[in-house]
Every structure is written in structure tokens, then in C-alpha cells.
Specification:
- This protein is mainly α.
- Helices cover about 40% and strands about 10% of the residues.
- It has a two-stranded antiparallel ribbon. A two-stranded antiparallel ribbon has the order 3-4.
- Strand 1 (about 120) and strand 2 form a beta hairpin.
- The protein starts with about 40 loop residues before the first helix and ends in a 7-residue tail after the last helix.
């Protein structure tokens, strides 16, 4: 007699079951589909790769992308161009996926070195993961110095300070003395000029005193009236 079980467990492995363990599920999907491969996009690409390097299913992800011939996006720690290169390599022909334990190659640019230690927060700020110093090609930078250089293309003049008020390393949230002086000059230029003191007012009287000129009658009277109001009401201003 054949008995049929209606509670048999599902012992078949689903082809894409690995996706439930992917580290990228906790990230913004746009991080893995950058709109470019140069300039500031290099920072985004390296941030995505940093997530891939910590992923327990990086090999399965890369295998999926290679077999499905994904034409865009970062899968298994590789960009589209890198996957094309890997496909042509002898390693791929031997069907040997890259080993996550292989030591990471030295960064080629300061931007790449900086990106390996940063991660963009949900609120848009850029967080730093690593020591206080960043070593690159024999030079040593503080994390803030590196962040400033990557964003502005030059070394900072004077101390680097944040404008956002939190422990952030986003380039447009950082200033040096050059930027601060430029902002101060712009604010000063935008500030409306103070109206000159007029005769017959307390400010006109004070101008006479300041410039050591003869005090005219209207200004003297205005100052007298202001003194009386101060003693009577506690203010020199005329009630409206």
C-alpha cells in the first residue's frame, strides 16, 4: 500500500534562494546601479563593492550575473566591464569564481582608498569606518583631509570643519579657511548697507559726537527728547 504524505517538507533548493542572505538587501538598490563609471561615481562604485565584500553569497551573486549575462549593475563585487573581462579570463573558463579571502588589491587612487572606508547613511551623510589616519602611496592623511581632497581636488588650507554638525565626511559638508573666507565675503556683500544717520535724530547726534563736528540744533533736540523718553519709559525709541 502506498501512503501519501501531505506534509512532506520542501527539500528542493530554489535556484535563487541565496538572495535572501544577500548583504545588499539592507542597502539602497540604487547604490548598485550607478549612472557612471568615472569621477564621483567611483566613490559610489567602491561603496557598493565594500558591501559585496562582506556578503556571504558573493559567489552565488556573481554566478547569477554571469549566467544571466546581466548588462548593468554591480554583482558579486564586479561592475559590468569587470564581468566582461572576467568572462574572457582563463579563471572563468575553468569556472572558478573569485575567492573572497584573496587579499584586496591596493587602491589606485585616493578616491578609491577613501571610498573603501566610507558608507552613505540613509539621511545623506557620509560615514567613516576605519582608523583616524588614511595611508595612500606613502602619504598619510586624516580622514577629514582625505575627504576634502577627494571632494574639492586640492589639499585643505587650514583646519577642515564640518557644516552639518555631525560626524560626517561628505565633501560638500566640509570647509577649509579658503571656503569659509569666501562664504564670509559673500554674506558681507549680500548684507544691505546701513542707512546713514540723518540730522534731527539721536543717531545724527551720535554721528556729530563721533566725528567731532558742531552739533546742530535738531540733533541736539532729538538727543534731549531721547534722554527724556529713556528716563520716563526705559527706552529711547518713540512709541508707535
Amino acid at each position: 500500500m502506498i501512503r501519501t504524505s501531505y506534509d512532506a517538507p520542501d527539500t528542493l533548493t530554489r535556484p535563487n534562494a541565496w538572495r535572501s542572505e544577500a548583504a545588499c538587501l539592507r542597502e539602497d538598490a540604487n547604490l548598485f546601479f550607478p549612472d557612471g563609471t568615472t569621477g564621483p561615481w567611483l566613490v559610489i562604485i567602491e561603496q557598493a563593492k565594500a558591501v559585496c565584500r562582506s556578503c556571504p553569497v558573493i559567489e552565488s551573486c556573481l554566478k547569477f550575473a554571469m549566467e544571466s549575462r546581466a548588462t548593468d549593475g554591480i554583482f558579486g563585487g564586479l561592475t559590468t566591464d569587470e564581468r566582461h573581462g572576467y568572462r574572457r579570463s582563463s579563471a572563468y573558463r575553468r569556472a572558478q569564481p573569485p575567492n573572497r579571502s584573496t587579499p584586496q588589491a591596493a587602491p589606485k587612487t585616493l578616491t578609491e582608498a577613501f571610498a573603501r572606508h566610507t558608507k552613505r547613511a540613509e539621511d545623506g551623510h557620509l560615514l567613516w569606518y576605519g582608523g583616524e589616519k588614511l595611508k595612500f602611496q606613502g602619504a598619510i592623511y586624516t580622514a577629514l583631509q582625505a575627504a576634502f581632497i577627494v571632494a574639492h581636488g586640492r589639499e585643505p588650507d587650514g583646519p577642515v570643519r564640518r557644516t552639518c554638525g555631525i560626524d560626517c565626511y561628505r565633501g560638500d559638508h566640509l570647509t577649509d579657511s579658503v571656503i569659509r573666507e569666501r562664504h564670509a565675503a559673500a554674506q558681507k556683500a549680500a548684507k544691505p548697507a546701513r542707512e546713514p544717520a540723518k540730522c534731527g535724530t539721536r543717531s545724527g547726534y551720535q554721528k556729530h559726537v563721533r566725528e567731532k563736528t558742531v552739533i546742530c540744533g535738531p540733533c541736539r533736540q532729538a538727543n534731549t527728547d531721547a534722554d527724556r523718553r529713556l528716563r520716563r519709559t526705559g527706552t529711547t525709541k518713540v512709541a508707535v
